[in-house]
Design a protein that fits this description.
Length: 405
C-alpha cells in the first residue's frame, strides 16, 4: 500500500487561497442546490445574556449562512386602525352574493410582523388573525393539527362548538380548540362579533405537520356543522373547580395527544380573580399574573403555547425583563404602555403588540384604573425543549436570573 505523506503548505500557497477556490466550486455547485461551506455559523443574535444594558440583541447576520435569517420586531396594531378593516369586511360580506366564508373559510385580517418578510405570523411560532362574523354567519366544522384559540374582543362573541359542546362567548373569554378537536363557529346574535384567532400554525408548517380536515363524519345540514351532544358549559362544569378533578369521565377530547379538556375560560371569571388578588404584592416583572392551565396536568393549555392574563394597578411600573420566548399581548381593560426594543407602545382597548424574544421590556399602567392585558407566548415550547431562560433587571441595573415558575 502506498504511503501518503502530508506536507505543510508553502508560504503563500494553496491554504491562503482555499476560500477563493471553494467559492469558485460554489459557482457550479449552486446549480445543483449545493453549497460548499466557506463561512462559520452566524446566528442572528449575539449571546442574548451578554448585554446587560441597552435594548438587547437582534442584529441580523450576514453572508450565505445568514441569508434567510429573519427577526421578529416589536410592533403594535392599534384598534382604531385595524378595526376599520374589519368593518369594511363586514360590509362587503353583507352585500356579497357569495359569503367570503365560502371561498376564504373566514372573514378576517391576518397580522404581519414587519420583520418576517410578509409571512402570516406575528412571532416565529404564532399566527394571529382577527375575525368578524355577521349575524347568521357560520364557519363549517373542521379539525386541524395546529392548536388554536379565540380571544373575544366584542361584548358578545358568537359561539364555537367543540367536540359536541357549544360555547357561547362574551368579551374577554378564551376559547380553546386543541389540535385534533372538531369545531365550528357562528354568530346568532344581532350584531357582528369579533375575536382573535391564535394558532401555532407557523411552528407546524416548519415541522411540515400542518393539515386540515373538513370532512367530519355525520356533519349536519348544508352548513356542515356538528351536532351538539353535551350540555352547554359541559367542560366548565367538570373542570372549573380548581384543584378538583372528576374521576368518572374520560378526559380525552378529540384525537390530539393529552389536550386540555377545559375549552372555555370566562373573561368575567378571569377579571374577578385578578381583582381579588390586586392587594397582593405581585411579581416585580409582571404585576398580578395568572396562567391558563390544563386542569388535569397543571401544565400550559397547549404544549407549544402559554396563555396568561395580568393586572397592572394604577401607576404600577414593572421592572425590566427579557426571556427566550416571543410574546404578543392584547389590552382587555384599561390603558398603559410597554417599552421594548427602544420603542414605547401606548396601548388601550383592543390594541395588540408584540414583544420579541431576547429584548428587555417593561409594562406601565398610565391610567387611573386597573389595566388587564392577555398574552400568548411560546414559552411552553421553549420550556419543553430546555430552552427557556429569563432575566430581570432592577432600577440599579443589576441583572439576575429568574427561576422557572
Amino acid at each position: 500500500m502506498a504511503t501518503v505523506t502530508m506536507k505543510a503548505p508553502a508560504a503563500g500557497g494553496l491554504s491562503n487561497k482555499a476560500r477563493e477556490l471553494m467559492e469558485a466550486i460554489n459557482t457550479e455547485a449552486g446549480k445543483h442546490n449545493i453549497w460548499v461551506r466557506t463561512q462559520a455559523n452566524a446566528p442572528a443574535q449575539r449571546p442574548w445574556f451578554s448585554e446587560t444594558s441597552g435594548e438587547g440583541s437582534g442584529q441580523l447576520g450576514t453572508g450565505r449562512v445568514a441569508v434567510n435569517q429573519m427577526k421578529t420586531l416589536p410592533y403594535m396594531w392599534k384598534w382604531n386602525e385595524y378595526g376599520g378593516y374589519l368593518k369594511q369586511i363586514s360590509q362587503i360580506a353583507q352585500k356579497a352574493d357569495v359569503s367570503p366564508i365560502e371561498f376564504a373559510d373566514r372573514q378576517s385580517i391576518l397580522l404581519l410582523n414587519p420583520g418576517l418578510n410578509g409571512r402570516l405570523q406575528v412571532t416565529n411560532t404564532i399566527r394571529c388573525a382577527i375575525s368578524i362574523y355577521n349575524p347568521g354567519d357560520v364557519a363549517p366544522v373542521h379539525l386541524h393539527s395546529p392548536n388554536a384559540s379565540r380571544t373575544i374582543l366584542s361584548n358578545k362573541g358568537g359561539y364555537t362548538v367543540i367536540e359536541g359542546e357549544r360555547v357561547t362567548a362574551n368579551r374577554g373569554d378564551l376559547i380553546l380548540t386543541p389540535n385534533g378537536t372538531w369545531h365550528d363557529h357562528g354568530n346568532d346574535a344581532e350584531e357582528p362579533v369579533i375575536w382573535i384567532d391564535t394558532l401555532d400554525w407557523p411552528l407546524m408548517e416548519f415541522l411540515d405537520a400542518a393539515w386540515v380536515d373538513h370532512n367530519m363524519p355525520g356533519a349536519q345540514r348544508n352548513t356542515n356543522v356538528q351536532a351538539v351532544t353535551v350540555p352547554e358549559g359541559y367542560s366548565r362544569h367538570l373542570y372549573s373547580h380548581g384543584g378538583l378533578k372528576p374521576t368518572f369521565v374520560n378526559h380525552q377530547r378529540g384525537v390530539g395527544r393529552d389536550p386540555s379538556p377545559l375549552f372555555h375560560f370566562r373573561g368575567e371569571d378571569v377579571k374577578e380573580m385578578l381583582h381579588s388578588l390586586r392587594k397582593e404584592k405581585g411579581d416585580p416583572h409582571e404585576g398580578i399574573k395568572l396562567d391558563f392551565v390544563n386542569p388535569i396536568t397543571g401544565a400550559p393549555v397547549f404544549k407549544t403555547l402559554n396563555y396568561s392574563a395580568q393586572l397592572l394597578r394604577p401607576g404600577e411600573e414593572t421592572e425590566w425583563k427579557r426571556e427566550t420566548a416571543g410574546t404578543y399581548y392584547v389590552c382587555i381593560e384599561g390603558s398603559g404602555a410597554t417599552e421594548v426594543g427602544g420603542k414605547r407602545f401606548e396601548w388601550s382597548h383592543n390594541d395588540l403588540f408584540v414583544v420579541p424574544n431576547f429584548l428587555w421590556r417593561r409594562h406601565i399602567n398610565t391610567g387611573k384604573h386597573d389595566a388587564i392585558i392577555y398574552s400568548v407566548s411560546d414559552s411552553a415550547l421553549m420550556r419543553a425543549i430546555g430552552q427557556y431562560y429569563a432575566q430581570g433587571r432592577d432600577s440599579k441595573g443589576k441583572v439576575t436570573e429568574l427561576p422557572l415558575q
